[in-house]
Task: structure prediction
Amino acid sequence: MNVILYLLPIALGLGLLGLAAFLWSLKKGQYDDLEGAAVRILDDDDLPEERRPGRGSGDNGAKPRDRS
Amino acid sequence: MSVSPALAAGVPTTDRVDYSAFVTPAEDGACRLDLAVDGITCAACIREIEDGVAGAPGLRAARLNYTTRRLTVTLDEGADAAAAVARLERLGYRAYPFTQSREEAIESAETKDLLTRLGVAAFAAMNIMLLSVSVWSGNVSDIDPETRDLFHWLSALIAIPAVAYSGQPFFKAAIRSIRAGGLGMDVPISLGVLLAVGVSLWETAHSATHAYFDSAVMLLAFLLAGRVLDQAMRKRTRAVAGNLIALRGDTARRIDADGGVTEIPVLAVKAGERLAVRPGDRIAVDGIVEEGTSEIDASLVTGETAHEPVAPGATVHSGTLNVSGALVVRATAAAESSLVAEVNKLLDAALLAKSRYVRIADRAARLYSPVVHATALLTALGWLAYGAGPHFAILTAVAVLIITCPCALGLAVPAVQVVVSGALFKAGVLLSAGDGVERIAACDTVVLDKTGTLTTPEARIANRADAPDDLLALAARLAQTSSHPLARALMLAASRDGLDTSPLADAREEPGRGVVARFEGVEARLGSADFCGAREEAARALAADPDATAIAVSLGERRAVLTLRQTLKDDAAATVARLKGMGLAVLIVSGDREGPVSRAAAAVGIETWHAGAKPGDKTALIESLTAQGRRVLMVGDGLNDAPALAAAHASLSPISASHLAQTCADALVVGDRLLPVADAVALTRRALRIMRQNLWLATLYNLVAVPIAVAGFVTPLVAALAMSGSSIVVTVNALRAQARTRSRAPVRAGRSAAPRRRLEEVAP
Result:
């Protein structure tokens, strides 16, 4: 049964890691906008400005794009 | 009398917009501005808005919160916040800066705190359960006592800090309620948890077989989850209400020392500042008229629909409408008039009475706690008398306390609350008071205010049928040039009927008289009856409808007289009928004169009405109804309704209501409709039924479980199963409050197509 002397700290350590991750995400405000996170992922504009399709390099980004 | 340049120019225009009152300093020299944004419909809007403001001067970052529909903008210090707003407006999104209300700020801090505690409790519960399951299975096979002790000590090591931290909200509330001399829900919860941990520690120290650490922590985790959900729902409702109020964009026009006019938020107006008030503007703050003469429409404040003339030296209230002439008003610090003072005095008394309300869960706890605690005590005494050792007697008594499970009781009400506030949200009712559901459901009498509640806040055309379409269109096109508040009503009516309302090129306003233009070579006029030469027609129209204001329009020799006044909301009659159908008594109390009130009452089918009521009369009426044993639901919007809203058992306000009325109301009704009032009553009644059912389920469960515990058969495994079982049952039952609303949707759509019934159809 000596094996539990290793297993218990590992199990608890993993649990604590999860708790720490949760507290970190809470502090970073990841639960402030739950709906936004779900729809932001659909937007593929995470590419750098100059590599975005349909957008010239002269565009400074201030102009709204035509979405119609 | 000297006239300031701002006023001499006729209608003062705005030179600057100043949002600095909303900008809060942030880290390293930046500052922050929160904007409520209207018109967000889809995911693509997020990018469009964030990209759209990106080029504003001095802008560092912009982040849109899609859940709350708010944009947080970080700017360099001293950057012009208005530029970002202007950019959004060019994109077609209306945005308005706002400051979080105090309640909202407190609540969002509380939510974060509760979530942290829930995280800790859930972590502890899972890890203790890991150890407990090993012990339970070991107990029936071959665990050796040393291993079991190790597991119990480890459980204790996790449970004690977790309970000490996560249990704090309950312990604090329990201490508060004991100090206040009551036994709330939190007392049995705290006692159960502390006893479970205490006894388990004792057991562990004596190498016993059973420890209840898992039950104690699981109980906390369940209850915290219930509270987090409850608060998350309320937070969202509050955010939406806050946005709607912010988007009304209440601004004032300040006259600066150099004579220029700056548009500033109402909240930033300081006492002593001079404000320019255009005709058609709402007066932002209480003040004294310094220059100009006009008429004031105080209907949203006092309910009185007749206009009151004002001249320099007169006192004007915030929320009143400036009808005819431009004014310069000096803002006064404290509202000095008798009306506001009276309202405040009545309000204090009413709020005091309201704080005595005891929530249903606490009422249940009042019955529950003594019974449970007495049972536990009797169990211990009984076993002692039977000859069992004190150790066994105390252990059994504690098992009784744990198994009676305040858990199901603690979840019974909040679970329903979460579900029903979601359903109310969809129906257009934003719940702001935590106990609003229970109180609205208990009402058997509805007292409606007339102006702004039963009727629309703005004037509408009452005799639409009398005016030919082309003349109405002409009137609307002329009205584009006018600043008169009734001009808006003409434009709205015409655009609703799909008529062309583009402004006429050469139209000009003759102050105090009307608008004149040439239309297809003929002179067109809009304005007073004299101005248009329609005195006889106007006299006839006013004889038929004495409460209305007449506006004439003429095109050459053709003339039409339109009568305008606040008409009943389209669904007013349907709402009253539905409320009556649910067995509620409905009556009207209004500050307006007898004529309009009686006609409105007849039109919607209400027999009992009180006219000319001052704020004191309204509360007196509610108090007398309460004294008759009735529970009153007050629906009102004006400053004068605030004390009555606070005095009533429960209260609702339209979102267009004055600020004071909104803070006194338990829930806000969105949009220009009244039907959500009936929906609110129906939904909360159903919710209250389910809450009661849940409490009964919890009781029933106790009736089964307690004898087993008293007999001494409850092991930690049984306690854990019973606790999760009962919690799941009440939560699933709570979900029924939601299922019903989905099937209701088509019913509502059908009803809105019902024939409209307006005041004019019944007016003499």
